[in-house]
Write a structure and sequence with these properties.
This protein is mostly helical. It is built from 8 helices and no strands. The chain has one domain. Bound molecules: protoporphyrin IX containing FE (HEM) (2 copies).
């Protein structure tokens, strides 16, 4: 007999995927915020120029700008390493579709379009949207990163970057919404949902 949704758990393989995927995306987001905010190139350029002026150093605005980009890229390069790791994790998640726990989210998510809706199918469709966005983020990212290998022109790369930035916005919004969602579920009528994703079916070991 199929377990009730409340008693459903997550296999070790899926939990490993979940936390590695979450950690990788978290660090990718850190590289983005570092590039866009904390080590933003014009901000660092101005800091360098200010420092040079106060210490009687001669450096042109263009040199300060290039130096700022060098500093920023030290962190930004992790974006690519983490991106490639994310692609490997995605392939691992595809393999998990062949397992019972790994296909549940897709079964329940797509049931939102059927007359017999599974429990929480409305929420599960968000995960499907997330996975589709993740796929296109990875695809566009890899194509840009290995542009020479794929013979991608500078113009196409520019268009692809716009696409990449557009799609990753879904992921950027998903993360806080998801965390708020699971915390609310945990505090509401789905007590134990977070521990199910950490240690398995602790709270609901009834069968
Ligand atoms: C970058 C951060 C995160 C991402 C990208 C993420 C992504 C996901 C995805 C894609 C699923 C569906 C899993 C499946 O394929 O079946 C999921 C489920 C889940 N996640 Fe996360 N997650 C993140 C952070 C967190 C955090 C911090 C928590 C705990 C506070 C958490 C708790 C859960 C739980 C409890 C579920 C199962 C929810 C359900 O059954 O509806 N996640 N997450
Ligand atoms: C959660 C997934 C991802 C997020 C949130 C994300 C976010 C971003 C953002 C916001 C930009 C634009 C930066 C700017 O405007 O200056 C960008 C650019 C880029 N990303 Fe991603 N990305 C993700 C995944 C990937 C992956 C998997 C790769 C593959 C290696 C990748 C490779 C790139 C490349 C090559 C660029 C072009 C910008 C450049 O390097 O100059 N990204 N990404």
């Amino acid at each position: 007999m199929e377990k009730s949704a409340k008693n459903n758990t997550y296999s070790v393989a899926l939990r490993i995927f979940h936390w590695l995927n979450a950690a990788t995306i978290f660090f990718i987001l850190l590289t983005v915020f570092t590039r866009k905010e904390w080590l933003e190139k014009f901000k660092i350029r101005d800091l360098i120029l200010d420092f040079a002026q106060r210490n009687d150093l001669i450096i042109s605005s263009e040199q300060a700008y290039q130096l700022a980009k060098l500093v920023r890229n030290e962190i930004w390069n992790f974006h690519y390493t983490l991106g490639i790791f994310l692609a490997i994790l995605f392939i691992y998640r595809l393999v998990l579709i062949f397992t019972k726990d790994g296909k549940r989210v897709f079964k329940e998510g797509f049931s939102v379009f059927k007359s017999s809706k599974a429990n929480k199918s409305g929420i599960k469709i968000i995960y499907i949207i997330f996975y589709i966005a993740l796929f296109f983020s990875i695809l566009s990212g890899l194509l840009m990163h290995f542009d020479d290998f794929f013979g991608i022109s500078a113009q196409t790369k520019k268009a692809m970057e716009a696409l990449h930035v557009g799609i990753v916005t879904i992921i950027i919004y998903f993360v806080p919404l998801h965390i708020i969602g699971v915390v609310m579920a945990e505090l509401g009528n789905e007590k134990g949902i977070v521990s199910k994703m950490i240690s398995g079916d602790k709270e609901n070991k009834t069968s």
